[in-house]
């Protein structure tokens, strides 16, 4: 029933969009969904074979760096109060600066290479992974940890057999946020400085006043974000089989 309701809402939204775009009559500003799909089909080889792989590579590298570094820092902060007090304010401050303002600086530092886009992606995905993992590692109950100790468990045993399982749901929650933000980060980086990628293609089509072609890569980016979210959900469900869902 929930899926049916979602489909009805989406269909209603697209119908209103289609009708409004046709009444407006300026496709270069507001193309209709049908016009966008037709334009996507015309550009499918360029979008899917040339620009999509570039954007996917940026997303994958950025997420990999964020997962490894974010998890490592979360573990350090949970085990060392001094490190937590030193790094936590810096993590928060890193999210106060608008990404759109930092992206040109990354282009200045790294040029029009993939690393300027990766830097934007890492900056935008690092925070949710780190904070959610840290919250998960810190959510363990002290009395249970003390019970482990009285039963002869070492700190290593407590970490791997209690803290990590407790933190996993929080980690996957952060991952769900991060994978969707990674698409935004890659697109922003490509929009401001790139030679290939879906964000770059959308910006180039905007200069040609081709509204449908501007929306076509956005459609692909949305599909990528949804696909990544579904992948994380599948991995979460297989990893957390022990968790009881209501």
UniProtKB/TrEMBL annotation:
<feature type="transmembrane region" description="Helical">
    <location>
        <begin position="118"/>
        <end position="137"/>
    </location>
</feature>
<dbReference type="InterPro" id="IPR000515">
    <property type="entry name" value="MetI-like"/>
</dbReference>
<feature type="transmembrane region" description="Helical">
    <location>
        <begin position="54"/>
        <end position="76"/>
    </location>
</feature>
<protein>
    <submittedName>
        <fullName>Hydroxymethylpyrimidine transport system permease protein</fullName>
    </submittedName>
</protein>
<feature type="transmembrane region" description="Helical">
    <location>
        <begin position="177"/>
        <end position="194"/>
    </location>
</feature>
<keyword id="KW-0812">Transmembrane</keyword>
<keyword id="KW-0813">Transport</keyword>
<dbReference type="InterPro" id="IPR035906">
    <property type="entry name" value="MetI-like_sf"/>
</dbReference>
<keyword id="KW-1003">Cell membrane</keyword>
<dbReference type="Pfam" id="PF00528">
    <property type="entry name" value="BPD_transp_1"/>
</dbReference>
<feature type="domain" description="ABC transmembrane type-1">
    <location>
        <begin position="52"/>
        <end position="230"/>
    </location>
</feature>
<feature type="transmembrane region" description="Helical">
    <location>
        <begin position="88"/>
        <end position="112"/>
    </location>
</feature>
<feature type="transmembrane region" description="Helical">
    <location>
        <begin position="214"/>
        <end position="235"/>
    </location>
</feature>
<comment type="similarity">
    <text>Belongs to the binding-protein-dependent transport system permease family.</text>
</comment>
<keyword id="KW-1133">Transmembrane helix</keyword>
<keyword id="KW-0472">Membrane</keyword>
